[in-house]
Design a protein that fits this description.
Twelve copies of one chain form a homododecamer. With 156 residues, chain A is mainly α. Chain A has five helices and two strands. In chain A, strands 1-2 form a two-stranded parallel sheet. In chain A, helix 1 (10-40) packs antiparallel against helix 2 and helix 1 (10-40) packs across helix 3 (82-88). Chains A, B, C, D, E, F, G, H, I, J, K, L: Belongs to the Dps family.
């Protein structure tokens, strides 16, 4: 049964679908990771980092919703289940328990770095088959690179 | 190193901490599950169910944050990482791909049912050691049971 | 046909259901009574009492909705029809026509008094079978007792 | 004692007063009926109908307040007590318990039908004695007829 | 020079124009009078009456603007200058200096009474020549009569 | 199949339905025309006229929705399709391309003039069969005549 | 009877009271004048001037309220009645009927000029006896001089 | 007379202008069509589809304004008159009268399908001559494809 | 250690610092006193006075914050501790327990009177050494004198 | 004279009244202390701590109002006067003058610690005599313990 | 020291950095120029142009912030100092003193023209090395070209 | 040509005009400087300082607009062009590139110090010739001195 007729022809639909599914998993994991350290951060910069992390969470949640609904729109069923995220995310996990503020900042720089590298590949991959998806990924990457700069700037 | 001095004595802290950690994992998984079917639901009731699921997501996200920060407040480090959620959640997962609206409603009834049963046990467990935590869990359960009724009412 | 599966076992469901149905009727009648004197009050304190009564109306309407939806959530069908309210309310009615402001204040003190006495009994009754319902009734009682104090304070 | 000097001469005041009192009772009963089925509706269209009914409640509550205050303004004391509503309403009551969504829609069509018929008579009756009251009733009837169409449209 | 082409034929334009000009002057004077006693009221009900008067001011200012722009729309130039208001208003003036609260209420009842009597005549006069203007005057009269009731109700 | 039971008896329904269908087409065309010159206006008064036209668009869109839903409410199916508007509108079209600001003002005066004349006829026609529809048309005409005055006032 | 005990000793109270009473009358008259030309302005700049005048009205109404309440606060009863304004205002009146936009601008420049000259004298007069009143007059003058510049700037 | 100097050289201006004019007509027609079925839809899903269609209307109206103003910005005069829309739209019209909800959903899927196919061609056409216009069309297409998915998802 | 370099030279800094510290203590005490009678007022004017007192509280809290931060800005450390307020406030305390409404009004008149007298001295004292501080004190005094008038006006 | 009839019998009223009076004094003192260090904090974390302290102030002010009005509602007159706070607060005072940021954090941890210990005792004390008061104290304690964790987390 | 790790490889980082620095200077200068003529414009269109210029200022300020933060995000330090702007801006300066409205419009057309030409070059330059930056510049150019059209349209 | 008639006589106009022009340049440069370091700040306090600087930018931009429009109001043409700012500002520039957070704080303390010294001279200079301008400068200085304290407080 074809539920949704894709605006993309088959090979394009598959390529773009994989890019979107990869982005979805990375963004959900980014939001879970940022919440994890939002709750467990300690140190003199606690309040500043705690608030900053919620901005990442809000941004990643919004982006994951946009990406998943874009997948549906091209007739690719998005998979954002906990098990799928745990297995296929491109972001390293973090250890349990309290984490010092400076370490949190390093964790976020590394996580954003991983996301950005993969997002930039997806921007390349989707350019030809679907400029609409590419435009969505470009906008999300701009936000990720802005957070990336900010965490690095306070890591000096 | 004792980072945070708990307002609870040791056995109480442990009991309440386990209740909160269990609640945290269930609520995160509930939010991920509700988003998953929010994106993949199909059928004549698509729009109504799609919107209703986002109310569950908003409620579960807010509750998970409250629960995790309550854990920190009693000196228990919350664990909401993707791997932990995938391994320890009390909610059954869902299969990949499009899901018919009536089936989505059934999935949500079952998921809320599982959450509620466990939450009601936690309300019993925390009553003596920490009425402050108990009050938080009571408020969250009221919301879960309201969603539970609503999905059942439309499942007739 | 069981439409909604109750989170409460049978004797608890019945006890809590009766408490909620009683609260529902009292709160609807309180909102109708407060509107009745809101429209018919006269005297130098007209404007102050007229505005104050609408705060009672808003609060009672909101509470009646919460209570009725709680009943549905535990699989008890709420009954808020005009006839049921007229027959089973715990609040005395008021005579038709204009009412002097001081008399309105006395009427409200008496009506709130009746509601509060019954609500406090319901708080006792529901404590064991359903702390979730009890918590809702506690919150409503706090508001009723606040209005009760205010009308008494201006009745000196 | 004449509390409020009416802007209308005596026979007009009486005619218009009766129209307003009749409208008041119908509108209060409509709001109670709509809440009753708002809480007790079941079936696949639960959420849609549940939300739609609250729009009727809001509209009927606002209209009943306007009508009652208009009565006071022409020196007719409005009577919106539970007993008066139960005895004199022009709307049929509904049976207790869960009600299927399609049946709820039929109940609302019938209730609005009854209100509209009586409102249109009141528009005729008040035209000469008081165009100000007539204008208020015209506005309320427009809203009732809009709801009437909508419930019929979904009843096909 | 005909600046604005009236949607009304000549005799109608003149009749309606006079009604609107009369209403304009009364409404401006009502707003000035209400402000005058808003500033000069004294007595135990000071705060209540002070706030109530500003509601009259807001309503009268809005109504005067609507009425004046309606005049322009039918090609009648409105005249709301201080001198014109002082000379042609239908409302009695008030003495200078502090005024007791009960006296303020009486002054407002009398002023609203005068406005309403004239407004009701204008509703009659404009019915045939211009139902659009009549509808505007009906709406304004409804508000004036509501204030009229309220001041009387607190004057008992 | 009778989908919606009309509150009006047959001849009235037909008369009022024609008035509403005529009003609908005129109002949609007015909104399209105002947008057309909103985009194509040039001259020193560009910005002022450009902004003013969007107020006409907002008002005409809102009015067309009210009128169409009123038609549905009396069981007359409204027809607002592009072809119907193009064929049956009472407003003259405008030539393609840039239009000087003074000319835009003249175009709007003429378009509003045509709408108003027809609306005033509809107010007469609907008075007896349906005062509810008449009241809606009166309100819309008041707004059209206000815009009519304003464009004329700046056309001097 | 001394109703309000002034924070100022007697000669100061009298001097400051006269300044405030003068300011009150000028500001009320300014608001009436601005409304008068707001309704009667014609010409290509109609819309721009029409909107600008309402900013003057809002500002003058707010300022008149501040000034009158300041008078009451120093135990001077303010007099803002229509007759007092007509007799004692420092602003020239305007002729009845339509007024061309450029002429409206000139009228406003002249009216503001008259207000400002008198306000600056009051700033001098109140400096010693009451810096609190002076500060209020300084703030009002800043706004008047801003409007004064703007009307002049568009009068070139 | 060259009113607006285009930022594009001539052949580019012409190509991009045609793309924008085509998009404008499609989007206006989409908004008229969606309103037409918004008013005439019937069936159990009436309320859900009725509300959903207004989201399409809002989106299409906003997009049509953006597209038309973009045309002006590159010195191409947009043409959104009723006649032009009726003659050149790429969307099939709909029959008059009530339309069943399931049929409405099919109509919208087909209309959006037609719009999307043409929009994707315009994205190709404008890529080289004007990436600024292309970016606008990409954003609009993303929204259309989202609506397209949603109507299909509820059509299963 | 000089933490903050004052913009004022030494004798000025000391004089202004004392004025600000005195104002701070009076304003905090005023806010505590107003809350105390806000909670303990009784009598027919309960509601009116209860609400009015919260306006004093809001105003005094805001003013105390402004004054304390102004002290810091000129390098004077503000002291608003409970003990300091209890010892150095210029306002008389009030007896414990319920207080009749008329008495509350008298208490507020006396408290504001004391504050105003001292504020006016501070306005004199700070004029030369620091017009910036003086301007802040002038603004606060204007508010205090407005409350002073209002409580006196209702004390007649 | 019994002003307010308590919903509690006498021994319960006394026990609960003492708990509320104790909570009131602690919360007022907490708000004064937090403002004191809000103004006097220095060091690299100045801005972060300065903002965080105002969140404590807002929370403590709101809680003190709730607690005091709850006391009135059970017929216990609350005492929140400066002298009472200075004498009976359970929080240690702070020295005058600038305070380093790290020291401010320690002061807040200690102050919150003292409040929480006493609040938890009051939760025990009020459980039987008045679950309504207990529920209020539980909510306030949850907030205090959240601040307690946050200040500790940044004190590492 | 590498503060921020760029997501771009070296030659790309340099090319894109120069584009962003150039855009930053142009946008800051555009905001200063628009403010300059916002303050100095005179003539009959004063108010319209004065308001329109603030929309340019808001847009240019927002764009300059986006561009500068994008530079930081790719590890290029932005330079927006007054001296740098004065020396390197691509926009012609304006003479001191009052400027007639028509001349202001011409100045803005020329300034926007210069910005747009350079922005379109930057869109070309950045396409390959960084589509993320290109997308930002495309969005800004769309806004500039919209303003460009509007000022030209009113310059006819 | 005298465009604007100044409310000040000639020598006063010149003195006050110079004060305003000096203030304008300083405030624009302050806003540019604060943005420059807002973009280039690095170090652990990055986020806190980054946000704080935008508050300075908002305040300085608002103040510069007030000051420039005040100049126009007294018939002095303000000059806020990039070149003028670069040449005549009283604030030292900053070096290009990343700046450590502690250094940014020092830069801001120095810049605010320079502004404040000059502003306090302008307050003296304008006192006699124009208390209206003086009052504006006093308000701006209060804000600058508040920022001055805050940056110093975090520089310890």
């Amino acid at each position: 049964m074809t539920v949704v007729k894709s605006p993309l022809a088959e090979p394009a639909r598959k390529t773009v679908g994989e890019a979107l599914q990869g982005a979805l998993v990375d963004l959900i994991d980014l939001s879970l990771l940022a919440k994890q350290v939002h709750w467990n951060v300690i140190g003199p910069r606690f309040r500043s980092v705690h608030l900053q992390l919620d901005e990442v969470v809000d941004s990643a949640r919004l982006a994951s919703d946009t990406v998943a609904e874009r997948a549906s729109a091209i007739s690719v069923t998005p998979d954002g289940r906990a098990g799928t995220v745990a297995k296929t995310s491109g972001i390293d996990t973090v250890t349990d328990g309290w984490v010092k503020d400076a370490e949190v900042v390093e964790i976020m720089v590394a996580a954003l770095d991983a996301c950005i590298t993969r997002m930039r590949e997806r921007i390349q991959t989707t350019a030809d088959p679907d400029p609409v998806t590419q435009d969505i990924l470009i906008g999300i990457t701009a936000d990720l690179e802005k957070f990336h700069w900010m965490f690095q700037a306070e890591n000096v």
